[in-house]
């Protein structure tokens, strides 16, 4: 169905497909342009690496050789990061700008609102869920870039 363009893959499905091909999501969306010397990005220059109910817009297109990934995340009401718990190498941190976040990390559940922040070892199973009735907006960082 993905090949026939009838459905768009979830982030977790895309990660599985790319893993079988020996590539990561950042590689998939990367341009050949090198961003290492770039300092600023205008809002419309952020690279959309997922769309739909959850939007991930990263700073920079090609993160090869970078240690840090910064993402502007938007979740529609009820949206979640995926059907499965996420787990990958590195660390993650973020701050809630707007809305209500239910964060699950390693079996523990947390509720966060505007101004609240999180930080955890990304190898622990985790998920994000918008539990509010308005858009959830986060700014997050991941090291190393994971998708």
Describe this structure as you would to a colleague.
By secondary structure, the chain is mostly beta strands. It has one domain (11-143): Jelly Rolls (Sandwich), CATH 2.60.120.10. It is built from two helices and nine strands, in the order ααβββββββββ. It has helices at residues 11-20, 25-29, and strands at 47-50, 54-58, 69-75, 91-98, 101-105, 108-112, 117-121, 126-130, 136-143. Strands 1-2-3-9-4-7 form a six-stranded antiparallel beta sheet. A hairpin with a 3-residue loop joins strand 1 (47-50) and strand 2 (54-58). The longest helix is centred in the first third of the chain and has 10 residues, at 11-20. The radius of gyration is 15 Å and the shape is globular. The two termini are 23 Å apart. The model has no long low-confidence stretch (mean pLDDT 85).
Summary of the model, kept short:
This protein is mainly β and 147 residues long. The protein is 10% helix and 35% strand.
Radius of gyration in whole Å, from Cα? 15 Å
- What ranges have pLDDT less than 50 throughout 5 or more consecutive residues? none
Counting DSSP H or I runs of 4 or more residues, the number of helices is 2
CATH homologous superfamily annotation:
Jelly Rolls
Distance between the termini: 23 Å
In spatial order, strands of the major sheet run 1-2-3-9-4-7
Overall morphology:
globular
CATH fold group: Jelly Rolls
Tell how many strands the DSSP assignment holds. Answer: 9
Average pLDDT: 85
Main β-sheet, in a few words?
6 strands, antiparallel
Instruction: Assign the CATH class.
Output: Mainly Beta
If classified by CATH, what would the architecture be? Answer: Sandwich
- What letter string, H or E per element, gives the SSE order? HHEEEEEEEEE
Strand content: 35-45%
Number of separate structural domains: 1
Helix content: 10-25%
Q: Classify the secondary structure makeup into a structural class.
A: mainly beta
